[in-house]
Amino acid sequence: MPLTGKSRNQRRMSDKPRSHGRLSIAATAKPRELVTDTPELAGAWKARVITLLPTAFPGILGESLTGKALQDGLWQLQTFDLRAFGEGRHRNVDDTPAGGGAGMVLRADVVANALTAAADGTPRDRARWPVIYLSPRGKPFTQAMAQRFASTEGITLLCGRFEGVDERVIEHFGIEEVSLGDFVLTGGEIAAQALIDATVRLIPRVLGNQASTEEESFSDFLLEHPQYTKPAVWEGREIPDVLLSGHHGKIADWRRVMAERLTKQRRPDLWRAYCAKHDRDPDEDREL
To answer: How many whole angstroms separate alpha carbon 69 and alpha carbon 188?
Structure first.
């Protein structure tokens, strides 16, 4: 007997999203799984990911500082298996492109059902909770974008596959398209993890030293200055004397000059933006 719309919805309701995060705050010597059904964590920044590969998460996000922050409840990750919303006995999620062509396209109705499930309990205001489709045709992902996302309550990420997503669902849900760069991946999962990593590290208390995020690359349209540490001499190469001088003013000046020099040489686009912000001529012959 075929599934009715109601029974199909009931079936989908049984496919619970996987929640990744803190189990409890009690100390224990026994390792615990990051992947578990957990309640919503009050005040935590949340990422909800719609994907055909839910087992790819948390992936690298479960390691190092982002993994510790996940366990500590500073942020929470939920994955929604797109296959669970598929149609028919085989739960199909895609079909051939209208008008012909190679590959397959994710169906609008299937993606819409997944987005509706992921939207449960989230604000409708996109400024408070953005919905993002990882797409090579999207706006380039930037540090400023990561800062914007970190200031929200959470984010929903749609990971594409095959030839992409039916345009109608993108328009209907007001989805923002974001790209990591001018290249194509086999799916959006790697891009989603990169976006989440860049965003989560900006959440207060994740890095421990929040000042470090204000001095790194792209914080003021500049690439970061060169970094050095021990030993003082390595393979005949010495640490610049100014960094060992203890004179904080001179050190700050040196770092600013080096950041400007690197940016002008390697990223003319950033250099122009920096000069526009500081009312400088990008073609000036000032000694850097």
So the answer is: 23
